[in-house]
Amino acid sequence: MGIREQLQALSEDKLRIKIVIPLLRALGCTYVKNHHGRTEKGKDIIYQFKHPILCRELYGAVVMKNNGKVSKKDQCEIERQIKEATRGYINIENPLSSIRIHELIFLSAYDLTEDMINYFYENCGITCPNLHFILGSELERLIQTIMDKLIRLSEKHHKFSIDNFKNICVQLEEHPYYRDLLESNTQKSYEGEAIEN
């Protein structure tokens, strides 16, 4: 069974916990929180990342659906979730302040039609101009990228499975060269390079 088929067989909870949260951490997010529950307000996951141009921490949220292809009936529910997810949420460290969501990812192991993606951009783009879609093949590509990076760094073959992916991400995050690489990429983007005339 291929990666995408394994992902499609997962419940939304298992996809979020076993795949997406470790993936975001391995991709360099500085903070990742499972936010799913009664008070999620559309946000299944909240993450923090360093913006390379603005030189500051920004926040993002992930809205997920993984129980089959999106029907027209699901469309209204997803639209509601996307709009709701763009609203700020309470800052746990300072309950008197609210954190703004700067970008939003809709994620699924299934694909959407181009018409449906355009529908979400047209109907949710005003409330969330930084709306991104990670679907089917794109999610599979991101996972394969993480796998390939660990194979290159460890010089050992690693085979993807749902149960070992979190461990693969942790190994990658803890590898000294990878950590240094993430930090140096962030540092370079902050410091920039001198341009000689």
Give a description of the structure:
With 197 residues, the protein is α/β, with parallel strands linked by helices. It contains seven helices and seven strands. The strands form two sheets. A five-stranded mixed beta sheet has the order 1-2-3-6-7, sandwiched between helices. The N and C termini lie far apart (56 Å).
Number of strands: 7
SS strand fraction: 15-25%
Largest sheet, described in full?
5 strands, mixed
What is the radius of gyration? 18 Å
The secondary-structure class comes to alpha/beta
Number of domains: 1
Shape, principal axes of CA atoms: globular
Return the CATH architecture.
3-Layer(aba) Sandwich
Estimate the helix proportion, in percent.
Answer: 40-55%
Q: Which consecutive residue ranges, at least 5 long each, have pLDDT under 50?
A: 186-197
Number of helical runs? 7
CATH topology call: Trna Endonuclease, Chain: A, domain 1
**Strand order, biggest sheet?**
1-2-3-6-7
Indicate the CATH class.
Alpha Beta
Element string (H = helix, E = strand): HHEEEHEEEHEHHH
* Average of the residue pLDDT scores: 82
* N- and C-termini, Cα separation: 56 Å
List keywords for this structure.
alpha/beta, 197 residues, two-stranded antiparallel sheet, Trna Endonuclease, Chain: A, domain 1, single chain, globular, 46% helix, 7 helices
